[in-house]
Amino acid sequence: MINAILINICLVLGLLIGVPFLFIYLLSAINRDTKQQIANHFRTAGQLGFGFLGVIIHEASHLLMALVFGHHIDQFRLIRIPTSDNPALGYVHHTWNQRNFYQNMGNLFIGVAPIFGCCLATLGLASYTIPEVYQSLIAATQQSFNQMNFTLPEFSWISMPVFLIIAANICIGGFDLSPADYENASQGILQAVIFLVGLTIIISITPLEAGFSALLSHFTMIVLVISLFNLLISSLMNVIFRII
């Protein structure tokens, strides 16, 4: 019993924290480099022009999760014109009760919320502009790890450029987590680990354990497929701006 619980704890922490944070790091690093390439060619204002949709989604994701976890919103701007004194493209200033376990844990999700917000935004965009590709992505999330197979379907060559242009704007402006975002997220990771360990122990000693592995595997496949999709788009944009 104890061995099974320890294995489940390792799986939960690895798949629910380790795997998402690997993609969070990769997506943030690639798009930070892309923004730097844009700044080198078009200055700071270029980052706003090429990524304004992403900036709005980035800040809106912070804002939404702060509200979900009961934080007090002091002030926010979903988008702003940067200045030499303040180069920020947007911000969400929030406070919380540091004695409240739930609100402290929320810092982790608030900090990394833009990655998931932008991933969902590009997925939603795909469902409208390239529905054939979207359906293939959804089908891929239903597969198991050892059966994972994705074949690019036929799609409209008219709508694909529209998707890529809008998705590029989302990726460039939205995926880059700032040092403040990472610092904010780090304040909630201990509480998140404690919560997940406690939840895993409870599930492991109840009848819910039967479907636990299947649910965990399905969630991980969703994160994997959507993250790889956005990683591909981000990498393509990075290559394009390096060539320009």
Descriptive report:
This protein has a two-stranded antiparallel sheet with strand order 1-2. The protein is 73% helix and 5% strand. The mean pLDDT is 86. By secondary structure, the protein is mainly alpha-helical.
| Coarse structural class | mainly alpha
DSSP summary: helix tally: 7
Output the helix-strand order: HEEHHHHHH
Radius of gyration: 19 Å
The strand order across the widest sheet is 1-2
Fraction of residues in helix: over 70%
Secondary structure: number of strands? 2
What would you call the shape?
globular
The overall pLDDT average reads 86
Strand fraction: under 5%
Note the topology.
Layout: H1 2-68, E1 72-77, E2 91-95, H2 101-129, H3 131-141, H4 159-174, H5 179-186, H6 189-204, H7 212-243
Antiparallel strand pairs: 1-2
Distinctive features:
mainly alpha; 73% helix
In brief:
73% of the residues lie in helices and 5% in strands. With 244 residues, the protein is mainly alpha-helical.
